[in-house]
Amino acid sequence: MKCVAQRKVHIKWSDNFAYAIGLIASDGCLSKDGRHIYFTSKDKHLVENLKNALRIKNKIFKHYRGDEKTKKYYAINFSDVIFYKFLNKIGLTSSKSKTIERVVVPHKYFDGFTRGLFDGDGTFYTFNDKRWPNGFGYKTSFASASTSFIHWLKESFTIFYGVNGYLHKGDGVTNLEYTKNDSRKLFRFMYHQSDVLFLKRKYDKMKIALEYDAKLHPNR
Q1: What superfamily in CATH does domain 116-216 come from?
Q2: What predicted TM-score, i.e. pTM, was given to this entire model?
Q3: CA atoms within 13 A of residue 127's CA, in its CB half-sphere
């Protein structure tokens, strides 16, 4: 009897599907067995977002990491050979963290992919610059262990969003960072639709900072 590959993920591009691809590209893991995809996070909401974006029914569970004795992480694990091969085709492999170079995403859905990367490995932080009156500043950052990927991402963001970030070496990763004006542009593109999946705490943090900055500089 011929074995038919089991399909759990309906492969069709949409904003939320692209969002899931961004999450997998940042925080996901492809097993070397050629069929299993694994995703883990301290934030249960993020794992739920991936599950909803891919419309899979697998259960979310908690687990340890390393020598930890407390289950601090939420995870989901599922098998889908067809989806696994699709991920390989668009640029994701089992050793992707350092070998990933680019991800083939339709331009129409690149905003969703960007939002997934941001929710997975991105950060947003505020600071006070004492050199200036009302010196309230903020930055948006994306991190990757692959230099090739972070350079591709920088170039793609310039083409699609008209932003010009800069690279900063971190501990085992390279950070792609954007200051105030570019952060506002990225926010508008990532959250231009209200009916899409995103991590609420990151959205709220950006929204509050941008609104506060607008009050400080109402004529900008």
Answers
A1: Homing endonucleases (3.10.28.10)
A2: 0.92
A3: 10
